[in-house]
Protein: Isocitrate lyase/phosphoenolpyruvate mutase family protein
Organism: Actinacidiphila oryziradicis
Amino acid sequence: MAEIRVTAPAPPDELPCVTTDLKAKAELFHSLHTAAHRPLILPNAWDAAGARIVEETGATAIATTSSGVAWSLGAADGNHADRDEVVRSVARMTAAVGVPVSADIEGGYAADTDGVAETVRRVLAAGAVGINIEDSYAGGPHPLRPVADQASRIAAAREAADEAGVPLFIHARIDTLLRQAGGIGDTLDRAAAYLAAGADGIFVPGTTDPGVIAELAAAIPAPLGILTGPGAPPVTALAQAGAARISVGGAIAEAAYALVRRAAREVLSTGTYEELSGALGYAELNALMRG
């Protein structure tokens, strides 16, 4: 059974204190990004049961998906979820597993750097040892935040983690390619600024082209994260190109919700249950959550 450190999600002002266990998990999480041609593979989770299942399959770490978490909370992705509810969700996932957990905090769930720092303090208290923070600017005048603005938000996250005594892994997401808001040169300029501000790794969703990945990996002096999914080259090809961290983002959540739709439509329309075949059994799931 995984060690349980948070038995129930608490209100943000009552979250458990950061411990030496958290520091050790953060150091372990850092080390998982450095093995040559052995990328950190992250099948993203959005709730405690999913996190436990992913761990049980052999994952060495868990990353949350902001879209999956938001949908499970009844909100849209894109900084629409309530920060307190997201933190509680992270706390439930860290409580359910023994491996390191990295929390996707979207743009920081805050309007300014003080708010970003507070978000980081809360996810650390919830038991996470890594974060994704993106430079997409939902509702802003441009698709991406200005470089200096995003760098200051990353610096605030770094300072908050340092003050807590935890070497938080800051995975700085650059959305130039995903949002078609810049090319390789713009991506590399942002990567340099974010690393200088305190980021530990760079996440560039929007490409699975091995040639582009190789160009990025050669020019970025930090672990490179890639978002993948159906139709992309296999993990081995992405790793050979230079990806150090490979995640599927919200794809598993999307597939799970697609099953909900198919199964509901089937039972309502034909009265049959074929979509439910292959399900995990009640006893197996219950035993898994009991440990």
Observations:
- Residues 1-17 have pLDDT under 50 and may be disordered.
- Residues 12-249 form a domain with the TIM Barrel fold (CATH 3.20.20.60).
- The two ends are 5 Å apart (CA to CA).
